[in-house]
Queue: 4 jobs
Job 1
Amino acid sequence: MIARLQTRRILLPALILVIALVAWFLVARASSSSAEASFTTQDLKVDGTPEADGDTVTLDARLYLPERTPAPAVLLAHGFGGSKDSVAGDAEDLADRGYVVLTYSARGMGTSGGLIHLDSPDYEVKDGQRMLDQLAARPEVEQRDGDPVVGVVGASYGGALALMLAGTDDRVDAIVPAVTWNDLRQSLFPQFAGGGYPVRDEVDADAAGVFKKQWTATLLGSTLIGSGGSLSTTPSADQLKNLAAGDAEQAVCGRLAKDLCLGYVETATTGRPTAGMLKLLGESSPARVADRISADTLLIQGQGDSLFPLSEADANAQAIAGAGADVKLYWQTGGHDSGVDTEALRPVVASFLDSSLRNGSVDDVPGFRVDVASGTPAADTTAADSRLRTSDLAPGVSSRDASGGVSRNSTPVTRLELDGNAQFALAPPGATPSAITSLPGAGALLNALGSSSALSGSSLGLNALPGETATFETAPLSGALTVTGSSRVTVRVASSADDATLFASLLDVDEDGGTTLPSQLVSPVRVTGLADATKDVTIALPSVVRDIPAGHRLRVVLSTTDQAYAMPQEARLYRVELSGDGILTVPRPSLTVTDAGSTVPWGGVIGLAAGTLLLGLLLLVRRRRGAPFDESLADVPLSIENLGKAYKDGFRAVSDLSFRVERGQVLGLLGPNGAGKTTSLRMLMGLIMPSEGRIRIFGHEVRPGAPVLSRLGSFIEGPGFLPHLSGRDNLQLYWRSTGRTAEPHLDVALEIAGLGTDVERKVRTYSQGMRQRLAIAQAMLGLPDLLVLDEPTNGLDPPQIREMREVLGRYAATGRTVVVSSHLLAEVEQSCTHVVVMAAGRLVAQGRVDELVGDGASVAVTVDDVDKAVSVAAGVPGVAEVHTADGLLVVQADLEGRAELVRALVLAGVRVSRIAPQRGLEETFLALVGEEN
């Protein structure tokens, strides 16, 4: 009852808040749209650029004409998957302010024809120029020196078009690109180490960054079904038409151009880009033309944006300013993760256009504006102390001196010393479990959940495990500091593979040890050329805005996983240490507080309120799951009760699995391929969650990141080791990387593993058997009470298998417990005391190995008189199916029957020299699972 009342206290206020905010938001929208219009509209059909096969393209457009003309014009572009209707509110606002506005649905979207080429200079940019032709021919548009006075405004997809159009056509006088990209290669395959991608040169696909799979799928994947970028459950008419015409590839691609579509499909399949894909992305990038832009520019970028972070706007600003154009930069709160609120930006956009198109100068516009939510994550725009801060020039952006020369604006920095030894970070096989830092369109929700003490499982989000991270930290700050931009750190990286994939982040750590990941952002880093070598890498940490109070610390975290990105699927081990002077360089430009408040984007408020509601629901679910600790099982190493795992596609891997493992047992987990063994082990280790049932280790329920998992040691398919280090060094660095302060018992683990003096040799000289024993020793560090091994004898020859059997026996003899999954049945029979047999996801049999093999087995008895023995055996209770084979007496008998048979034979004068089972575990296994397969 008390738990129910507490849950209601969480849910009821959150539900009321959500309903009230939604109602207010809808009423405000309705009232704002009811004002009398001061403009007229005309719908147009404009010929677009023909497709490569000659197909004509018609673009659906709308012209907004104010009461007074001629007037400056604005070409207004929409975001990806939208249409001219998506920006109708922005167009009406500009028309009300006296601008001629032209909107249109981009090719492949809305009711416009053609295919989506992703802002290609050969298609979408040329379409934009045709729209400029429309404006230039209209008498309602103001002319200056024979050209129309026109600005281009757009967000995201439309923002990139504004930049590329301005870099291609000098008729554009002003642009306001918002939350958009500089280089699509960097946006979708980010690389925050080194100098990034060359502007116009082709890139070796092997050198590309890390695939941003979730956002790319959200954008491009949504065009494969439906039309106009809108996700649908049924194919579009164009897809059915292409399928009927025999063009299966274009049928799959929907409205996405085939070359772009096939490049995406291959990339999504392999996790790595093709050279052709990178070439297309590079051609669709403003980076190629930004240094040719002469138009007045206001770049608006969101701080809470894992798709196009602040660094993309910075790159655009530096290129445009370097060419001598006037560039203004505004870092607003929000972004793609929490929604782009263009309505809140309308006054900012209109003011800039007035200065540029009407007054002919943007000198009165601050060079740099940034919203700072003091002491809170930057994406939390509901904070009352959110302030607008300004400076004359954006950090790192060039300026012109009195003589007309261009110089780079040097941003002041604070240098903070980091502390931390060299550390190991494990990249788990299958890249699971993975840290969760960002989800497309759900940044506000993750901020709410990530800061919750009830749900935050780690410093990187909800489920990153300590062994997957390397961390370095400053001392407590002596004074307050506002981080404004991208901090830098240099590390040295080694890898068990030829390359390394890492995700770097900067965390705010308060006095109590609580952590906040500003805007849930990470910087992906891919380091190549690491075969038998190390490499120093300078990493640009996420560009963020955050007030850090005195007494807080800054923590640099490098994780091996992130759910939003494609990662190597094989197990890897990385060694990371600080390089050089171990300094964290933090940008701190001089800013002036302009006002005490800022416009609140209500979409973000509603998102956070919904996050609060969801948090309450999650807490309710947690309470209903039952007690996480069962005192009656406190001394039981492993208890599995009614365990099941079903996947979203309906496949059920495990059903109603129950068994216990006691102290000192060596349990063999057996089953054919597809029996559910690996799934069961992954649930046991907290890597995936069961659909039903419970797993308890010493009475504590297993969940991802559960503290009781520190009592479990494991390895799957053998972890990677750094080949140029000794076995001992590998083990010591691994233990430090786990963050545990307990004694590792390294010498004891090495003695049990039996490596001897070989532990001092470099791992590159090890045989496969020695690597396996080193892996066992690593799993034994800290002498875990429960050791879980998946195929520990893989790749070993018979003498090595015998040694591994002795290792497991010695470990179990210490009173600890071992669980082994293996396909070598004879080996399990010799090394395990107990066995669990699975088939088709279910338990088939369990028990002691000798009992399982002996129960119902055929027994061969060597006697001196076979005929007499047959007649004696036929009358012994518990003996059945008496016959002879190869001069032996063969009977079917249980354990008691065997003993009674020997007694009867001896009493009858028959000499018995040997009795042995006629079948072993392999025959028993086949008999048990035969009917299941």
Job 2
Amino acid sequence: MSEAALSRIANLISLEDDLVKIDSLRQQFVKEKSSIDIKLNSATQSQIDSITSNLNKLNKSSIKLNNIKAEIKKINSLYDESITNLSEYDIIEKMTKVNQFFTQVRNLYSDISHFKRNLDNINDLIDAEYEVITEDITYPLNYIFKIHYNLTQARNLQDYLEVESSGLSDDLKSIIFKIIQPIKKTIKKFDDLLAEVIISVTEAVKEGNNELVFKLIQIIEFESTEDLNLILKNNLDLNSNILNINYGKVRLQKRNYKKFFYDKLEDSLIETFDKCIEHFSADKMLVYDNLNWLEDELVFVNDTLSQVFPKSWELDNFMQNVYYNKLHNFTMDIIKTDPPAEDLLRILAYDNHYNKFLNKRKSVIKPQQKSIIGEDLKNVVLDDYLKVIVSKMEEWNLNLMQSETKTFKERAQPPDLYNYHQVIEDEDANDEPVVLDIESSVYVLPDFKTPLTMLKEQADVAAESGYGKILVGVIEHWSKCYLQRIMNYQAIIDEEYDNYMSIYNNERFLIKESKASRIFRGTKKRPVVNLDEMSQEELSNISKEGLLEYLAALGNTFEINTDRLQDRFLPIYKDKVHTTYQSSIEQSFSDTMDPSTNLHVQVIRTIVEIIVNDLYPALSIVFTKKWYEGGNNNHLVEDESMASRIVETIGEYMEELRGYTTYDIYSLTFTILLDTFIAAYIRIGYENILHGEGKKIDPSAVKKFKSFSEGVGRDVMAFYGGLEHLFTRKDARYLLTSLRAIEFLGDLGTCDNPMEFIPQMWENEILGSFYNCSVEYVRGICQCRKDMDKNEINLLVNQLVKTQKSYHDQVEPPASTQVVRTLDDFRYS
């Protein structure tokens, strides 16, 4: 008995009371045993029945297998008999071929007899399709597949007849030719229809007619596949025997419709471009301004049309290449005609635009197609353009300088007036800074905007080209021309000043005339003019009127233009080029700054010298007896003092200048005039004492020469009072400080114990007002003193030099706006 049964019995009779249940348990076990036996017998019988069934099936399979083997033996036997009995095999083969031949002949007869009628049906279908598609681009070519299928069958028959007739007699060949001749017309019609579809694909897709394109693609792909199959069969020599082939399904000659597609598409694109050229035949350069349609077309092809076609067709690259080649050839033809510089630049501008346009496209761009003229030729064209521009600019500049020279020298008309906005920094009554905005009319030279207009025109065109090299080249050569104009004006000023001074020179009033001339203008000899023998008209031809006005106009012109160059032109053109070119542009504009400043200085210096020249008659009596007496002499207006005459002359000039110069030129001119006039006042006074009618100053004199300090003070008061109103409050400080150079002379010339007083005054007062004061200023006044000998003066001057060096070591120089240079370069003969 199993352990499971024993365990179960143990669970049932685990208690003593359970023993009475043994009989019932026995009966229960008997029933369970009977039930298990019945189930076991049923399962066993089922397994036996299954085994019996499978054995029966196996027996049937064995019988069938034996039958198959018997049939295979019969097949092998028949095969062996067919191989071994050759005569019977040949007969069967010949009978088969005869049967195929008769069938082929019957089919040929049927197809040939209906050939013309079939072609007429195909022609009618083609004509109907062509008529609709030419009128309605949305037409989906409903019958194109039917046309293509039927025509393909006919062309296959044509191929078959042409190949098979190659070995026939000429008469038979002629018959075959007549039979197939009509198909050429049908092929031409189909090709025309297909060409119309090809050139319409772009517009069809734009109108949403993708079905037309899909059908076209399907036909071209089918033809391409069939051509490829033909090539493979020919290579494998599978078409050597075509007598009994199914000619309706077999192609014997290539159709090349893939090439046909690209050829017709290319012809269409070229025709479109040629129409654009023809439209602008009067001025072909306008083509470059009207190529938006081409760019739109390429964008559409790239973004839309190429997505409809198979990727392997590379439609976008093909169309891009066609247009590039056409554009390139068109451009090269123009360049060969040696076009003007403006046209070259327009070509370069579009070339740069075209390059940027292509770089935005997704299609693959060949490196050589990034430029419509090619990189090598582009560099040549750039150089040629710059050469042309340089040549034109030099020619233009030469003509401009000739015109400017003539205008400046003849001065037939007053200078032009220009409304100029100025910002002036000043101080109010409380010495607080204020800013004044002033609109005033100032003199400028005729056509003063011409040089900057020329720059703007050329630079704008160069900037539009997109080539920084061109823009930099234009600005660099314009800058060189600008410098040539400055040098020309400098020469004109020198010449005109010499002509003016040959007539109006007042240096004859001065002692040591030759030395004074050397101090002011160098050693250049002026024309010798005999004023007594010349008429007023002849004198006017030597130096025409209006020199001062034209000098002022010249200064204004270059000041305004310099400001415009720096404030407007430089930022604009810097922003138009890559950072690698910006420094070159900055340098070009910077190169004009110093020469322009030098020209300003020359203009102002010339104006000042003209004014000071008019002061010489009055200044000629400084520190002489007449000066002590009040300044009356036969060279001046009767009863008018020297100081009054000077104030009146300076006032007239400066009032006039204030009416037509910019404030900057006016202020700078007045500053330099003060420096020059005061230095001349002192120098001429020294020369009069040392070499002329003046007497040396005797500090110990009781009456006669004691008035020296009073005379100096009198002049200072007259100068300040007469000129103060010509300055702003801020600039009036310069007038006050510069006049101290005259005021100090009173103490320097009359002080007691000069060897002690002058060094103290030098350190405590003079250097504070004139930081770079020349020691010649003190040497001169000391030489004019009667009580100082040469040794004392030399000793004193040496002491002053040391003091000045020590002062400079200890005291920082004043700000540039506060420097007073009246005595910086002072000297006397």
Job 3
Amino acid sequence: MSRRVRAYLPNGRFLQVKCFMSQLQLVLAQINTLVGDIPGNTAKVLASAREVLERGPVDAIIYPELTLTGYPPEDLLLRPSLDGRIQRALDELLDARLPTTLVVGYPRRRGDKLYNMAGVIQAGKLVAEYAKQCLPNYQVFDEKRYFVAGDQPCLFDLCGQPTALTVCEDIWHPEPMAQARAAGARLMLNLNASPYHQGKQQEREAMIAERAREGKMPVVYVNLVGGQDELVFDGGSVVVDAQGTTRYRVPAYSEGNYRLQLDLATGHCDPSLLVPVPERLSAVYQTLVLGLCDYVTKNRFNGVVLGLSGGIDSALTLAIAVDALGADKVEAVMMPFRYTSDLSKNDAADEAARLGVRYGSISIEPMYEAFMAALADEFAGTRRDTTEENLQARCRGVVLMAISNKKGYLVLTTGNKSEMAVGYSTLYGDMAGGFDVLKDVPKTLVFELARYRNTLGEVIPETVITRPPSAELAPDQKDEDSLPPYEILDQILALYVEQDQSAEAIIARGFTREQVERVVRLVDINEYKRRQAPIGVRISQRGFGRDRRYPITSGWQLGD
């Protein structure tokens, strides 16, 4: 038996296609694109497809959301040459006349409206296009700034099977799936650029399963992989059957073409690939590694340099840098001062040796004294305060930036989320640099990640992990002299920064009024610092960057 269903075409018309039972040979092309490099991304699609076809025929190769521009292209979408560049890229894909179906994403203008589009290329023709209907405009997303939402389903004939298209956010809402089912679809292809945050893969699969059950059809979910500024796309592409069971899961954090045979009747996938979802610490660590690796390589830095203090933040940052780039592209510099302990010096040298990086020691004492001499008249009659402490940090910043300029290295700062939140950092000092790997990592998680990294090979000395944290900018200084214990601080920050709870709501949870009001006040008054801080990898649902936008100048009062 057969039945006829509608397949919607780019011109808004439709054709009738026959539906037969079938098994489909599919490839999930989990690729790492470069935002804005439309020719390079197009070449990557063609190279990927040709590599697949060299190993045998397939019915379709599915690529991530906005394949040709990369994601998120932000205001590149406003450039007047965008339309021409996209058309040239599509023409190149059409002219290749590959003997398979390509499903790719790209921005596409119809009249004066720009759509986030998924297109289907078969036998040198663009046979179907789907405009994303659900445009995310929350957290790190602002697609409504650029795109107009579509309102129609799109079905195309894939080897006799009526196959529907959706794009990313569409799978989080029931309407696009309901439309596709009503139109007669038997399979859903969902193109994604879904960034990581902790627990995200579990959230995705739960939602995909819900949609698959509602639509009574398998869902093929293909996600982007790679770092783009502060966002990291972790891959984890899956196939979920009509009962909501995940049947196929590819490795996270890994670029590749993953081939399978999908039986539409049973949802069975051959081969039966079901790579485990990474454990929490493993996922966070791999996210940090991939985010740093892609930021450095895509921006063509020669390597990285960082100040290695003997503390846990710089120790973890160094380990991540080596895992991301290799020891030959990492330089660590100890910059001791009179308050730097022998333990810090020894631990820094020990870790550098364990990781095999270039390591040197440059005392900041002479330059500090030169600054103090130059400022003697200006400081006459004043007491010593944090000015002198900040001057030490700024001497270190100057040293690292000089090395950066001379060698073409990116300076890595080492501040964690807890410090960034309360302003426990020095502008133009330890904040001077181009990328902060730990920017969205609370201090308590820093300790967890350090211990996790040591399970892969002990590179962080135990004394670095167990000693009380200190900036060592004054005699016998400890972080908790001026901050609440990190176990308490991080809980308050999570409630205030990531969940937007009020001071009164946080106090009601059992924290003291004094602690809460002090922490909240510190967060608020240090917005100006965070605006000048380098970007860093986002791992939470609310990092300091794209998805938390508070005014610097504000009269907002603490309260409910």
Job 4
Amino acid sequence: MKRNLLILSVALLALFGLSAFTTDDDPFAALLKKLEEYTKKYPQEKIYLHLDKPYYAIGDNIWFKAYVVDTKTSEPSTISNILYVELINERDSIKKQIKLPMQSGITWGDFKLTDSLGEGNYRIRAYTQWMRNAGPDFFFDKTIKIGNSWANKVFTKTKDVLSTENNAEKVSSTIQFTDKDNKPYAACEVAYEVQLSARSIAKGKATTNSNGEIVIGYTNAQPGLYKSGKITATITLPNKQKIVKNIPIKTTAKGTDVQFFPEGGGLVEGLPSKVAIKAVNANGLGENVQGAVVDNDGTELLKFETTYLGMGSFILSPIAGKTYTAKIKLADGTEKSTVLPKAASSGYVMAVNNVDTGKMAIKVMMTEDLVNKGELRLVAQHNGNVYFTTKLPTARQLVSVSAPKAEFPSGIVQLTLFTPDNQPVCERLAFVNNPSDKIEVNALNLKPSYDKRGNVDFNFSVSHEAKPVQGSFSVSVTNASTVTPDLDNESNILTRLLLTADLTGYVEKPNHYFLNNDTKTRTELDNLLLTQGWRKISWKSLMNNQEPAMTYQPEKTMKISGIITKGGKPVPNGKVSLFSSSGGLFAVDTLSDANGRFNFDKISFGDSTKFVVQARTDKNNKNVQIDLDIVPGQIVTPNKNTGDIEVNVNESLMPYLTESGRYFDEQSKRGLLDRTIMLDEVKIVEKKNPAPNSSNLNGAGHADQVFTEKDLETAFSLSQFLSGRIAGVTVSNGKAYMMRSGGLNGRTPMAIVLDGMNMGDDFDLDNIVVQDVESVEVLKSIANTAIYGMNGGSGVLVITSKRGGANTSYNRYAPGIVTYAPKGFYAVREFYSPKYNTNQDSKPDLRTTVYWNPQVVSDPSGKANINYFNTDQSGTFRIVIEGIDNLGNLARKVYTYTVN
């Protein structure tokens, strides 16, 4: 990518270059230097996830590849080496979280959508720990629809009717309940609860009519406070089975919010300004409006209308002493008035014409009192990199600047105008789409058509500025006849990394701005940037040397660290041991430093790995306290993509659900897909498991004797409690011994397994605080101890700690020991692609994702190969290739072919 400073042509003025203010005593040059140092010290990251499909069904797998880039360089990030990806349901609850290692900003993973999940509007959220400092506004956070037909007995269809009465919003929701064949569930009892913003506002019961419908009426008396929520409906089927359905309420309001945004920040008397409009309805979607601007005398000055997704603009020249009001006519015919921002009597206006493909035309206007008051500065920067800056004399009220776009990288450019005393007064965004920093992708031998189960074997070449490049690419192939592409809103590497990753708030149909490069689309994109919040660098904070609070450090490696204290004071030179028996024996030692701190770094482990940390003083005193460094989890903020929420998910995805259901049924017949939900209720009288959370290798509760939390309520210590309570076992000095051979001398104590960890011979029962114990399982018989091998030869005590509290992975035992089950790396699965040249399987192939490869690497000549087999279905097959090279140049290419 090019990093050269622009050569600016200044209309009506002599040229003033950067060299005009690079002297050491120039405070503005010092400010730009601070910007450079700040962005170097506090780099940012942004993430894109390439998904194999735009939507899914229960039973599917979500396959994804993550691209993480450094915003300053646009290159694959080396800031962080660990990525978190989460699947979040409509109730803002994390249903799945995986932790992935990254190398040069690249990683990939998957989510299996088991039938323990229901249909709904889910979110895929991805971030690094370092990104948490900037806040969740800049996480990858995409709403995806997940339908459920294969493991679903009840389908709902909801229609809301809104009305207003005495300033309260009234809603009438008609919910229809049907089976998979669209037959209504008639005469069934339904219990329901309506919640708005997590507050219950209505409860009741109803019986479905002959069409399987109930009608729920409720009132939102505080529409400004409570705007969205859900209906939880529990229907009792004819076989007495109860099915719970969660139905989103997008909004209870009918209003449309209309806002006006003067270009550059404010209106100024006597200076013409562009004013952008954004109208958003209660569902979060743009809604076109029209209207007129009138002054305080009632004189109509101009008419306006929005042209795309509720956005548009008009030009207004405020007059001194006048105020202005917008009279707005909404889509439903109602009218409202909004007072426009008050114009300042003195100031500057910056106007940018960004519609031209070749250049940005920038005009700076000022009121007469600011003429000849010193030189202005104009700066354009992209993610902290300054691409041009110039002095603008104030001899006249108008200054024009022309900046060629070819010298800018693709993405958002932030333009800032500074006063002679270096105060920022005008600021706005502009977008540059530069073809020179895109990777060109060419399919070399892709045929226009193939047969069913035909072998698709083709090469593609990648180049940048006519030179081959090596890069990392991901490839997804779907049958567009089954998986209809969502062109305006599907996952897109260009849209994400060049546009939405730097914007705050919801962006409706973001891909629209990249589908065409005509004047109309560029104007629509410019209106978006005039009305959207963005990732800002605070110039005033730079001037005042205010540095941000960085709570989270970049994760380079996994580590387990903490501090040892005794009597509240740090323990220097203490011996700290870390060991695990998960997946094989692991043990390592270290010493605490002068401040009592210890660190086991550069370790790597999979998910569900359990560790024990033991500590002693340098004199082997174990009466110390260990406090591990625990990074709190990221909270789940409400879904910002409200416009993408679909009330009737299953109905909107029904064609796909029908096709995917056939595939899942076939997979189930072949034993490749299991149902985990009993679709018909079976009443089973089962004894409650006394140790439900146990890690007993025989299975939780399978023991010769079990003591529960209730049994231990009055116990002083474990050794005191167990003494005399286990036949054939004696307890001495904190250890339990089986008496099969008589006597204790030379005997091996019973093994203690705490939360799945074998604690070793040095561990005493009384090292455990009895109030922290949920269950103790005694394994004495060979049938129960054999699975533990040599460790079970003298019997086993399986002890399970309580699982209370938010952080269940960290349990402290006094003295000098803690068990810890941190989040480990996810074991990534491989996409299955059949090879019909070697395996002539006669069973139908109904895959909805035909091919997925997250890591296709081009060779030094810029070539890569793709090889897979089609399914048994005909249609138009769609290949999406996306990727990045080591300089941060991006690639996206879509190809199609037919299968007959």
